Amino acid sequence: MCEKIIRKAHYNPSIAIVGAGIAGLTLALSLCRYGIKSDIFEQSDQFMEAGAGLQISPNASYLLKKIGVLSELESLWFEPSAIRLLSGITMKELNNIPCGSHARNQWGAPYAVLHRTTLRKTLLSILERNPLVNLHLNTRISEKPFTDIINIIGRQPDLLVGADGLWSKIRTCIENRSALFSGNVALRFLVSTHKAPNFIDHQSINAFLGPNAHLVIYPLPEISSINIVVITSCPENMIQETYGHIAQPSEHTLFMNSLSSWNQKLKHLVLKAENPFFWPLFQCHCDHWHNGRDTVLIGDAAHAMLPFAAQGANMAIEDAYILAAFLAQKPISEAIISYQENRKTRIHKVYNRINFNRFIFHLKGPNQLFRNIALKIIPPAQLSKNLNWLYGYKSII
């Protein structure tokens, strides 16, 4: 269960969290450590997300341990032996980043994979046992959030936290910024473990790199499946819906065209995908994450990221943990200012890494060859060391 209260907060504000995704649930658990109560408002009444595998890197799993939920997750998730970088044409390994025991030794916490729903349900189960948290499912909050919340709980919260994701309504209370299409789309699907092709490595995260696309495969043993995602570019005029949906034939064809020069085994895997989900990838970079008074954003609501470094959920966990720590130490107006000051530089650095990977992963022609050669000559230990700033991050709060 949630770790016992480590110390009573100097300040004990009433917190309203809009959104019961990973950011919102982690924030509520983090607040519990300081004895701070919260109300969570979630418009859905269920937690199913199709084909959504999740990578939890050590920078986030370290914090999940701090808030007392790691032991429950360790019995559910899978810790891959490595992140393998491979050619999408030859399927040969270009390099690898050791994980498993190496991750625990190098970065102080595990690197793991699991289904997104598994994580959310686990966090929710822990929260439901905690008297400091009130969960309001099937509750829609409008563009007038304080009015809605007062009508539901009978009082105005001291702080409103927008953890309502990419299409955040709370964001409009701070700045009028919409999410923008990135020019990339993802095809996501699952394959039953017993039906998986024999070329799939069931012990690792396998990232096959360009030309024109990249494809990631890793196991999800807790649901007896293999998670597969392909990402490529797409003209904006093809985007008819902003949310994920079962791929139309023309959308499936887009991916097959992008993979035209890829290895036949990988092409066949994507061609035969059953009910793959087509996801347009949007991003949103907010200048302001708070209004200086009573409203603040975390996770995708503040800084929706592309999945080229598998850090969206991990940054949300970091946000939640750090915001809770500041709220326990300072008055609200100071806490939310300190939170943004603490997080902005790191988020900017992660954005830079995402943009670098986005460029590198889809190279074609001679540039693809140069990339592959460069990856082959870097020692795996150096590749791992280059990620210390990301995976080895330890919050000083």
From TrEMBL:
UniProt domain FAD-binding: residue ranges: 15-350
Pfam families, per database record: FAD_binding_3
Transmembrane segments: 12-36
Keyword presence, Zinc: no
EC number: 1.14.13.1
Keyword annotations of the record: Membrane, Monooxygenase, Oxidoreductase, Transmembrane, Transmembrane helix
Keyword Transmembrane helix: yes
SUPFAM superfamilies membership: FAD-linked reductases, C-terminal domain, FAD/NAD(P)-binding domain
UniProt GO MF annotations: FAD binding; salicylate 1-monooxygenase activity
Domain of life: Bacteria
UniProt name for this protein: Salicylate hydroxylase
Organism: Liberibacter crescens (strain BT-1)
